Amino acid sequence: MKSKIIISLVILCTGLLMGTSMAQEVSKAQIKGLDEQVQEIKKDVLGISTELALLEEKLLYPSNTQVSVFVSFADKEGFRLDAMDVKLDGQEVVHHLYTAKELEALRNGGVQRIYTGNIRTGEHQIEVVFLGKSGLGGVYREKASHTITKGVKPKLVEVKVAGSGLGDAIEFKEW
Amino acid sequence: MKPFKLLLIPILNIGIMTFQTVDAKPATDLFFGEAIYYAHKGEYFDAISRLDTELGQYYGLDEPGLDSLHQFIDNAQFSVGDFELYYRMHQRAGRAITSVIEGNVEPAVRNKAIYRLAKILLQKNQPVNALHAIERIKGDIPDDIRDDIEYVKAVIFMVNGRPTDAINILTGLQSSSTHGGFAAYNLGIALLQLGKDDEGIIQLDKAGATSGSDEGTKAIRDKANLALGYKLLESGQPEMAKKYLDRVRLNGAFSNRALLGSGWADIALKQYDRALVPWTMLSKRNVTDRAVQEVLLGVPFAYGKLGLHGKAAILYGKALDSFDTELNKLDASIKSIHDGKFLEALAREELKLDKSWVVKLRDLPDAPETHYLMHLMASHDFQESLQNYFDLEEMRKRLLKWEVNINAYQELVNIRREYYKPLLPVIEKQFQLLDSRMRLRIEQRDNLENKLQSMLIAPRPQFLATVSERINGSRVENLEKRVKHLALTDESRQRVELLRGVLNWNILTEYHERLTQAFKRLRELDGVVADLKNTYRSFVRTRQSATQSYEGYDDVLNTLRLKVVDSQERIKTAMLRQGHMLETMAINELDTRRKRIEGDQVKARFALAESYDRAQKAQADEELLKTVEENARRAGELAKEKEKSEALKGGDINNVNDTTGKDVVK
Lengths: 175, 666
Fold this sequence. Notes:
The structure holds two protein chains of two kinds. By secondary structure, chain A is of the alpha+beta class. Chain A folds into two domains: about 1-60; about 65-175, Immunoglobulin-like. Chain A is about 35% helix and about 40% strand. Chain A contains three helices and eight strands. Chain A has helices spanning about 1-20, 30-60, 100-105; strands at about 65-75, 80-90, 90-95, 110-120, 120-135, 140-150, 155-160, 170-175. The longest helix of chain A is centred in the first third of the chain and has 33 residues, at about 30-60. The radius of gyration of chain A is 29 Å and the shape is flat. Chain B has a domain at about 210-285: CATH 1.25.40. The two termini of chain B are about 45 Å apart. The relative contact order of chain B is 0.05. At the A-B interface, helix 1, helix 2 and helix 3 of A face helix 2, helix 3, helix 5, helix 22 and helix 25 of B.
């Protein structure tokens, strides 16, 4: 019996010593200090991101050729957008399948930039086709086209999508 | 073993709402809308970056009032602070929101900003500052956050040791559809804080009986009943305590601690057999849970109290085996963390897609036992550190991509330079030639217009003579000269005069028609000149954009490259520190659990030895009793035999039998 107790005490002491040697305290101050450092890094990386975005726009999509297509929801309830195709002068430039998160973001007033590219000045045809489900569960497909005139300024086209299925499901707005 | 433990769960665990959705309202500015889109997708880095870019461009405009963002500028500024908050940039978000608070905004917007700021401060463990902030709320409060503000205010009062103020608010929130359950629970806790134990217990009793079948309500009920049960256990009312502890669901997050407490309540009532019911159930659950480990000692303790020392000794032995296994697991987990497997596992993308990723972590080879880390992982400090680690990792990947992009852009610029630089001077030379010709033609056209304009005032018919009329006119002029010098007949002279007359007649009579025609043609020429000017401008723009497509980028790209490299270095260092901190936190947690198990192990060994001794003693007593009974039985048999033999011999048999029997028994 005595030997058992001695063994257990030895094990306990060894365990405690091991514990002491491994454990290092993480203080609140250390956590706070590192958190502030991470916040500083975030600020700087965001700065780089902004600079890079401006540079990319200037380098890859200069104003005189830039065209961007945005998608927003005009009708936010009872409608599910599944997919969207955008054609520019008969050429498909984007095909997008929507995730639940993206739909939620659109329903909450978000605007999706679905395409950015370059075109020459003059008239161009934009064609939009979307596939969705109405509030009643019916699948429907809508198609609409619009002529834009590209000038020297960036051409921004908003495609407003509604789920009514009454022929006014797609509305174009130029900015 | 300590029978009772105060388990009044800290109010902040349940009281603080998490930031899960953004408040940004729909905007009609496309770029602001795009930022909102990213924010609602939970991609706050992109949301901030896009809104920062848009705000930067807005403030750089000569006439920002004409920009579509102008009417949303306050909202946009507020939103960028909001997004920063979600991206855990509390310092910058705090400043952004403070600027909104101090700016010229409507009371509703200001109050919303103050509410957000107070929540940040509360979350960052600055309760006094949170109190100062929340007390600045005045005037119009948006309906959608009215209850949120009241609730956070109550929590702030409680954290600042002002339960009376908290009670006033929480009493008014009892019927709130969003905060009713939390308010009922916190009201009970606030009353206990104030020392009004009886009222606190009644309130927690109410919170524990709240109706509702949603998971949130059930969790609040369980939490209230658990807190109340342990409070009553602590104040020596085990019978009442058991009533509340038994209300806690058997499959909820608080069930293990409730079963443990229920058993302790039975022990306190000396109903050891009843304690075995919840404890035996609990002992079959996941052994990594602290309550289960505690009950591994509790069950044999109850058996010991029932006098079943042998059974108790066996169960203490099993507990020791279990503790050995757990200690080995913990050692392996600590080793795995030291080997860097924990951070490797945390950074795996596929795990983050699953809500139960923490549990799945343990299925990965060499990953540490995450059940022991669940409590740690739920703590605010660990979560913040973990999120920072994830954010750093995400930024590291972005910077790697940007580095590749910057090199590609540099190449793009070089290719454009190589293509345009030799081409542009040739084009430029041709352009100069065309330019001078064009200028000349435009000058001619202007002269023409001037002449036509002057003819409106002073008619000059000769100017509008046709080419043939001019040729014929000069011929007639020659003839007139010849007629003058030569002595011709009158008839000849009259013929020349007739020709002159016909020419003048045509020129003079058609003058107005010709003038109108000339103006018409001038307008036609203007159309051509306009086309020419458009082509000219288009050429100038193209030439300019060709130049701009490669000039002025080198410095920007080099600066960006340096910034990327610098950030990569800083991220590397921060990730090392953050990773080490996470590992240390995890090891500390595992080490604490290890020490507790080792303590339990020591207790189990002592208890095992004691139970073994008692079982042995009981066994020896039993054997002695059996021997005594056997001896008595044998003595009886001997006495009977002797009686029989005496009866055969004759004499006073009864007397002899009695005496012999007594001796044997003695």
